[in-house]
């Protein structure tokens, strides 16, 4: 039996904020609250295979967060395509790990959120390594397409 | 002044088929027909930065296709999330380059299509290198989520 999700995210932006706050706090339960459990969710970590389903996705994030490293995630270059039931967010994650003097190489991300009965939830997180500084020259300013 | 697109894609699947056929034919014009020109399109090649806008996207594909190499792209593990105006396709590309005996390492892809006045067009192509064989063990059979 699935646990009932307690948090409702009225907008995709609320879900996205909760997602990155959960990473920064190292809170796996809060992180998994953001993901849909009605759909076959998909997650690709930088350079990694495609993971599907709550079990694989939870396990991968648990591995990342259990290191106890503290992450600061600076988001840049957000582009949003907003539909009625789906919302696509493209952005750069610039990740600083506590104790490291320089940010990690930027990560290019496509996040997809879906509207359900309990608000917006993440259904896709596709992250990939990028050879280029994130959110700077190649990027337009943050923009909502329509 | 923008050229009027001549081809109409009645479904996201039609647009996706045309996209990969254009790559296999090395046809940059057919490839760019699939992309929207009404929106700020986004394209991420494996390990590369995020490109935005028709000019950057065209230039990157022209570079890839002008090599004259012939590509065969075998798609696997398709998962589709279909909305009214947006369609998200997750899949693996297994690319065989003519003259090479083995397929290139699989590429994990998120393609996003948007419905416009002239049918469905691509607005996002996010490809990333994967360490795992595409479309085999980790993948469920092709499935449409809803």
Which helices and strands, and how do they pair?
Two copies of one chain form a homodimer.
Chain A (H helix, E strand, L loop, with lengths): L11 H14 L2 H7 L7 E3 L5 E3 H13 L5 E12 L3 E12 L9 E10 L2 E11 L13 E2 L2
Parallel strand pairs in A: 1-6, 3-7
Antiparallel strand pairs in A: 1-2, 3-4, 4-5, 5-6
Helix pairs in contact in A: 1-2
How would you describe this structure in keywords?
homodimer; alpha/beta; Nuclear Transport Factor 2, Chain: A; 23% helix; globular; disordered C terminus
> Which range best describes the helical content of chain A: under 10%, 10-25%, 25-40%, 40-55%, 55-70% or over 70%?
10-25%
How many strand units of chain A? 7
Q: How many helical elements of chain A?
A: 3
Structural class of chain A: alpha/beta
Mean pLDDT of chain A: 88
Strand content of chain A: 35-45%
Q: Report, as a whole number of angstroms, the end-to-end distance of chain A.
A: 39 Å
CATH hierarchy class name of chain A: Alpha Beta
Radius of gyration of chain A: 15 Å
Q: Kindly report the CATH topology of chain A.
A: Nuclear Transport Factor 2, Chain: A
Number of domains of chain A: 1
Oligomer: homodimer
Tell me, what's the shape of chain A? globular
Characterize the largest beta sheet of chain A: strand count, sense, and whether it forms a barrel.
7 strands, mixed
Task: Quickly give the CATH architecture of chain A.
Answer: Roll
The SSE order of chain A reads HHEEHEEEEE
* Most extensive interface: A-B, 40 and 41 residues
Low-confidence stretches of chain A: 134-146
């Amino acid at each position: 039996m699935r646990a009932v999700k307690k948090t409702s995210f009225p907008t995709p932006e609320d879900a996205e904020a909760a997602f990155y706050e959960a990473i920064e706090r190292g809170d796996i339960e809060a992180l998994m609250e953001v993901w849909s459990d009605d759909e076959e969710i998909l997650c690709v970590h930088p350079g990694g295979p495609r993971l599907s389903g709550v079990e694989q996705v939870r396990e991968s994030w648990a591995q990342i967060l259990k290191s106890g490293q503290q992450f600061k995630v600076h988001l840049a270059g957000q582009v949003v395509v907003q539909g009625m039931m789906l919302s696509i967010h493209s952005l750069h994650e610039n990740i600083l790990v506590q104790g490291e003097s320089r940010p990690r190489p930027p990560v290019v991300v496509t996040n997809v959120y879906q509207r359900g009965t309990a608000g917006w939830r993440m259904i896709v997180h596709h992250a990939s390594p990028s050879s280029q500084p994130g959110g700077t020259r190649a990027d337009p300013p943050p923009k909502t397409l329509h």
